Amino acid sequence: MSKSEKPTEAIDFEKALAELEGIVKQLEAGNLALEKSLALFERGVQLARACKDKLAEAELKVSQLVKDKQGLFSEEVFKEERG
Predict the structure, then answer these.
(1) Would you say residue 3 lies in a domain?
(2) Residue 37, Cα to own-chain centre: how many angstroms?
(3) What pTM, to 2 d.p., does this model score?
(4) Average pLDDT per run of 10 along the chain, which is 83 residues long?
(5) Would you say residue 7 lies in a domain?
(6) How many domains would you assign to the chain?
(7) Does 70 reside within a domain?
(8) Would you call 64 helix, strand, or coil by DSSP?
């Protein structure tokens, strides 16, 4: 890892997403040198993976409250509805 690269494991989702959005804006502007563009692209891939991992981790933790026949709430594991 070079000096300019930051570890993605310790970064929280919101910061990773904000940094990724900034990288996208810089790359879309199209006025960077090739080497800088490649470095930003690599960092963007790292951040995208980190965000994906954090979302997958959150999905595993998500549960929903469901009311049973007696009107009581119970906890169920979140089941993704796919159309």
Answers:
(1) no
(2) 21
(3) 0.67
(4) 59 95 96 97 97 87 64 68 61
(5) no
(6) 1
(7) yes
(8) strand
Could you tell me how many residues make up the chain?
83
What CATH number should be reported for the domain holding residue 69? 1.10.287
- Quickly list H helices, the chain: 13-29, 34-61
Give the domain extent around 30.
13-77
In Å, the largest CA–CA distance within the chain is 65
Cα separations in angstroms, 4 against 1, 39, 63, 82, 83: 8, 9, 38, 40, 42
8, 47 Cβ separation under 8 angstroms: yes
Q: Provide the phi-psi class of 30: left if phi over 0, else alpha when psi is between -120 and 50, else beta.
A: left
Tracing tokens 């040198």 back to the chain, one arrives at 33
